[in-house]
Amino acid sequence: MNVSSAKENILKKIRKALSESTPIPFPQSEGTHSVFQPSKQDLEIEFAEQFAKLQGKFVFCIDHKELVGQLNALTATQGWKNIFCREEKLRKTLQDQGLGGTLTNKDLGESDAAITTCETLVARTGTIVLSSANASGRTASVYAPVHLCVAYTDQLVYDIRDALVGLKEKYGQQLPSLMSFATGPSRTADIEKTLVVCVHGPKQVYLFLVDRH
């Protein structure tokens, strides 16, 4: 068999494979339920534990008033002068509750921190799920040196599968062009397989979980 014939046979096999449906390699894991055992503790506690393991900073707040109190204390301690917030509803809520300092929707590159909401929280992995459909867009959560995220207890789900199902139910066929799963501060092991934290993206991530049961 010459080279051209061998190549044609390979291409025929590829075309045939592409024309057929690909079987699921592990069908038992593709059911309607997660392969992971349900959490034996409250999702709030599960998320807090996993998030802290990833060097995230977790703060529980009983309401918006306590949220603003915590933010004011943190802002004073860190000496922040410019907190970027593109989300009008969130900015109004924080200002109405007495947030001091400067909240702005301009000059993200000059900000000390950026504050956003999120789509959902995954308790099993301590993950914040964000999307481009949020008013903060693609950059606010990754460009500022510190990411402050405000979330609510009714946004907690156990597994990533649950988060994806929720996003499909929320957006239907109009899924956001970007969905990101932020699991703690940025990290990489590209250099000599050594894990280094805060190489790119925010150096610190705070999650303020507000009770909304």
Descriptive report:
With 213 residues, the protein is an alpha/beta fold. It has one domain: NagB/RpiA/CoA transferase-like (Rossmann fold, 3-Layer(aba) Sandwich). The protein is 32% helix and 21% strand. A six-stranded parallel β-sheet has the order 1-12-7-4-2-3, sandwiched between helices. A four-stranded mixed β-sheet has the order 8-5-6-9. The chain is elongated and about 75 Å long. The mean pLDDT is 83.
Which key phrases capture this entry?
Rossmann fold, 4-stranded mixed sheet, 6 helices, elongated, single chain, 6-stranded parallel sheet, alpha/beta, 12 strands, 213 residues
**How many extended strands?**
12
Instruction: Report low-confidence residues grouped into runs of 5 or more.
Output: none
Portion in beta strands: 15-25%
At the fourth level of CATH, the homologous superfamily is NagB/RpiA/CoA transferase-like
What is the string of helix and strand elements? Answer: HHEHEHEEEEHEEHEEEE
Structural class: alpha/beta
Enter the CATH topology name: Rossmann fold
Main sheet summary: 6 strands, parallel
Euclidean distance between termini CA atoms: 71 Å
Mean pLDDT value: 83
- Main-sheet strand order equals 1-12-7-4-2-3
> Which word captures the global form?
elongated
Number of domains: 1
Q: Helical region count? A: 6
CATH architecture: 3-Layer(aba) Sandwich
What is the highest CATH level, the class? Answer: Alpha Beta
> Using only CA atoms, what is the Rg?
22 Å
Helical coverage, percent range: 25-40%
